[in-house]
Amino acid sequence: MERYVAILLSAADEQNLIADSTKPHIWARHIVDSAQLLTHAGDDDGRDWIDLGSGAGLPGIVIACLVDRPLMMVESRRKRIDFLNDVIADLNLGNARVFGGRVETVPATKAAVISARAYAPLPKLFSSALHLSDKKTVWVLPKGRNAQNELEAARPAWQGVFHVEPSVTDADSALIVARNLAPAGKKKGRP
After folding, report:
1. What one-character DSSP code corresponds to residue 31?
2. How far, in Å, CA of 163 to CA of 104, rounded?
3. Do the domain assignments include residue 103?
4. 124 falls in which pLDDT band (50, 70, 90)?
5. What's the CATH number where 58 sits?
6. Most exposed among 69, 119, 140, 179, judged by the fewest C-beta atoms under 10 Å?
7. Which residues neighbour 121 within 8 Å (Cβ) at sequence distance 6 or greater?
8. pLDDT by residue (tens digit) across 24-71?
9. Is there a contact between 122 and 150 (Cβ–Cβ < 8 Å)?
10. Is the peptide bond before 191 cis (omega within 30 degrees of 0)?
């Protein structure tokens, strides 16, 4: 993990990977903040963990370093795709790969876990990635201070089992954990 932090800090300015204000607190603000998703992800069932809008590799690279489960990071920006592929090669992360393109263009699959940190509001996130999930998929979504409000705004259009968990790194932030996600009015027991 220390090697990843060194790579991240080295490339941060060139690619605007993380905010300057977070660099002194990189371990808590980015590494532990990403790692906490594991406590909500459930057991590894062999299916992919898919991280949307991976950018700097947060949480994707952190998760791939900590657990040996298949992980696909989805990123549409060429410089970030190259950065992620370079990090995967440098750290020899055989369990991680990058899909270069928009979330909507990822071939349909059934992920075990879907994560997205600083990606999009819930309605857009859910609609763009629903084809990657089934009723067993766990959505683990760091949403910051407005998690509860964002969840309430999504409820008219989306149904499922939702709960808000406090962040371990910021008392004002939270994670949204969702299961059995479906558009409102659709049968929740989808495959």
Report:
1. I
2. 25
3. yes
4. very high
5. 3.40.50.150
6. 179
7. 150, 153, 154
8. 999 999 999 999 999 999 999 999 999 999 999 999 999 999 999 999
9. yes
10. no
pTM score: 0.94
The answer to whether residue 189 is domain-embedded is: no
The total number of structural domains that make up the chain: 1
Q: In which residue are the tokens 């994560």 written?
A: 115
**Cβ atoms within 10 A of the Cβ of 189, count?**
8
pLDDT tens-digit map of 132-191: 999 999 999 999 899 999 999 999 999 999 999 999 999 999 999 999 999 998 755 555
Please report whether residue 191 resides in a domain.
no
Going by DSSP bridges, is the β-strand pair 113-116/138-144 parallel, antiparallel, or unpaired?
parallel
Q: Report H helices in the chain.
A: 2-15, 26, 33-35, 60-66, 78-91, 122-129, 147-154
